[in-house]
Structure formats: structure tokens, C-alpha cells
Amino acid sequence: MAASVSAAAKASAAFAHKELAAPAPAPTQHRARSKPCRVRAVASPARAPRAPASTGSVKTAMTMTEKILARASERAGLEPGENVWVDVDVLMTHDVCGPGTIGIFKKEFGEDAKVWDREKVVIIPDHYIFTSDERANRNVDILRDFCMEQNIKYFYDIKDLSNFKANPDYKGVCHVALAQEGHCRPGEVLLGTDSHTCNAGAFGQFATGIGNTDAGFVLGTGKALLKVPPTIRFVLDGEMPPYLLAKDLILHIIGEISVSGATYKSMEFVGSTVESLNMEERMTLCNMVIEAGGKNGVVPADETTFKYLEGKTSVDYEPVYSDAQARFFSDYRFDVSKLEPVVAKPHSPDNRALARECKDVKIDRVYIGSCTGGKTEDFLAAAKVFLASGKKVKVPTFLVPATQKVWMDVYSLPVPGSGGKTCSQIFEEAGCDTPASPSCGACLGGPRDTYARMNEPMVCVSTTNRNFPGRMGHKEGQIYLASPYTAAASALTGYVTDPRDFLM
């Protein structure tokens, strides 16, 4: 992927070297495949002599989020609550919000206006794709016409709905596709017309969802007005038990602080447990910060981040890290080794309960998919449970890979300890539905013909991110949010089930 470094990044290169290079552990000193910054020489104005200050020089300590926004706004320092204009590195929109965003852009900037940078706009149809609904299909047509008119470089189009594999440009769920295609980079600002855009914070960048009006303005100017959020730090230490996944961690945190506990706050995840997680698990953590009201989630970039990005982007990037003296709104500390598998009961993500406490809840189906729970690692986890049990599922179990790449992984990657079997083979032996075409699927309900949509009142264990009434279709449906481990275990019993029943 080729794109230019943002104007803000160039203009603030000198500041980046002097102010953003905070002391950090060895892995975070790495500047991932970046070229040397161009340092701009600025002559100091003449000043009258004065006596030295008794306190010496003072440097403003900042959190990661504050530093990223300071760089993007060409400010030497920022504090929570300040409103600043920032230069946007990437703007993403999709088939649900894209048409509205395009309409606002044309209304305010003119029918013949051009976007601020055709290489920084990413347009991904993903929500309502595999449906016969004419309005849903029309939305994709609107995106296609706009991208052709504007010569948008990164439009992941789909034309043949009968066979997604015949569409090499089509990717699938926007948040996972953004990562896989190299659009997520440390130190940058990524905005999207979707609340789960915070998913990209796993890469050490500022990423958040915005509305169509703001997105229309960004299309025309490349700038956004943002209020600097205070940061809550979550320190997760301890060895991750073999029956827990990142979904358990974020559900536990949301249950601890509530769905409003991080309202307009940045949620920064650090600690030995976080450092041990792969990128897809870190994405799961950041994906659901919006379920706690968070403005954005962020994980410090390290060697795991840099290795994931190898071969995915040719754009220079420079990570930043919270200063040791940075001021945090509050701190939460968790010993992960003592946690148990959890679920979020209907109808709120903070309605937390231990999975074993819900063993008498009879279910009608299981859904494994979405930006939160439809990544390669999520399907490998589910396959691990099915493999360990050697049994067949007792309720319909729907599998929806997030992207075309994930779909291919499901059919090609051997599951560890399986003797070479792939996820798809294990799912077939367990009696699951054949993995569906990659998309958001039934996570947001969608038209009635959406695969696995709940068109009747049902009880579902799902790896998705929200369990509001009507979220997956019928307004009387009940959704239990869970990790892929717990979802697979529940499919095998027909009840909400602790995965330790099969993994221990």
C-alpha cells in the first residue's frame, strides 16, 4: 500500500523527535521500518536576557492519546478537555453510512468537489451485502459510483453477490479489513463512520467512530474537530489461563465499570497479559471500548505490532507512548490468572455473569462471527473446543468469517493438535453450518434474508459485541455475549456452558 505521510506528521517532525520519544521498554524503542523524519530548522526569535528559572525546563507529560492528537494538531502539548483541529490520516466509511456521508459532502462542498486525498479515503462495503434487499444493494451502487468519480484508491468492491470469491477486491468486515490491508498504523489518526472503529486502537493509534456530518467534512478538508479525552489505564497482569480469551477480559472490564464507566474517555490497555496477546486478541480488547462509553481504546505498539505490519504497509509511521509522569483519570488493575470465563446476559454488555452461573440457560443457537469474534484466531479457538470434545453440536451453529482472508484461513490453516485438520473440517465433523460468505452477517440484524438473522424470539450465544433488544433481528431475542471458547462449548450442550468443561 502506498500513501504519503500526513502534512501534520511532516510539520511536527522536530517535535516528534524531542517531545514524543518518551522512555520506554526496549521493544517499544523500535521505529517500525520508518525513514528518518525530516527535521525542520526554525530560528529562535531574539529575546532579552533574563535570570534562569528556579524550576528549570518543564516538559508536559502526556498519555499516548494526548500525544497522538498533539502531533496531529501540531501542538507542543495537550490536556484533556481541549478542543483541537486534527489532521486525519485515514477516513473509513461503509455501505450503511457511506451514502449519507457522500450526500453531505456534495451538499456542503459542491457536486463537483474532490475529496481532500483519494489515497486516505477507504471505502468498504460489508454490512448488508448478501441480501436481495434492493435498498441495501443500492447503497453499494452509490459507493461504487462515488469511488469511480473520485478515483478512490482503496475501494473494496463487490459485484457478484452469488460468489464472493469471484470478487478479488471484496474484503468483508471493515474493521478487520482495515488491519489486514495495512491501513492501521501506530501514531496515526483513523476515523470511521462506525462506532467500532476503535478496533484499530490495537495498533497504538487514535481511532474512533464519527457521524456522517463529521465524515462529510473530513472528506472535503482532511480535518476534524476533536475534544481531547482523559485516559483511564487498565493494567492487566498475570498468565492468561488456557480457557480465557480477550473477549472474557473486555467483558469483565465492562462489567466492572459499566456501559457508561468510560464515557468520552480513552481506555489504555497495558501490562504483561496485554503484551502476551497477539494482534487479533488486542483488536478484540479495543473493539468493545465503545460498549463502556469509551472514545477510543489503545494498546502500546511493540514488536508484535511491527511484525504484524510487515509487508502490509509502505507508509512511514512512528509510535508514541505514554510518559511515566502522564496523568491518568484513573487506574484499574487486574490479575488475569484469577479470572473465569464470563458472559454478558441480555440486554446489556455490562450485565456480566460467570459462564458457570448460567449453566441452566437453554439456548436455541450459537453465532460465531463479527468484527469482534469472527477473526482467524476466534475460529481456531472454537475449533479447539470442538476438537477437544469429539462431539456434535446440539443447536444450529452459524459461522461467519469476518473477511475473505479469514474465510480462506478457516479452510486452509491446520488447527494445532488436530493432526492437520482445518477449522472447516472440524466444524463439519461437529455438525456446524457451512461457513458463510464473509460480512457483518446478522451482527446488526439487517434485512430479513440476512444469513443467521433471528427472525423469531430466540436465545443465542454470540461472539458479537452488543446484546440490545433487536440487535440481531427480533426485538424479543435474547443474546448472551461470550468468547469463542464459551460459544463453542455452549453449542455442544445446548446450554450456556463454561468452556472448562471441555478444555480442562
TrEMBL record:
What is the official name of this protein in its record? Aconitase/3-isopropylmalate dehydratase large subunit alpha/beta/alpha domain-containing protein
Where does the record place the Aconitase/3-isopropylmalate dehydratase large subunit alpha/beta/alpha domain? 79-494
Q: Which organism is it from?
A: Urochloa decumbens
Q: Does the keyword 4Fe-4S apply?
A: yes
Keywords, alphabetical? 4Fe-4S, Iron, Iron-sulfur, Lyase, Metal-binding
Pfam families under this entry? Aconitase (PF00330)
Q: Which InterPro entries match?
A: Acnase/IPM_dHydase_lsu_aba_1/3, Acoase/IPM_deHydtase_lsu_aba, Aconitase_4Fe-4S_dom, Homoacnase/IPMdehydase_lsu, IPM_dehydratase_rel_enz, IPMI_cat
Would the keyword Membrane be found if you checked this record's keyword annotation? no
Q: Which GO terms describe its biological process?
A: oxoacid metabolic process
One Gene Ontology MF term: metal ion binding
Q: Where does the record place a coiled coil?
A: none
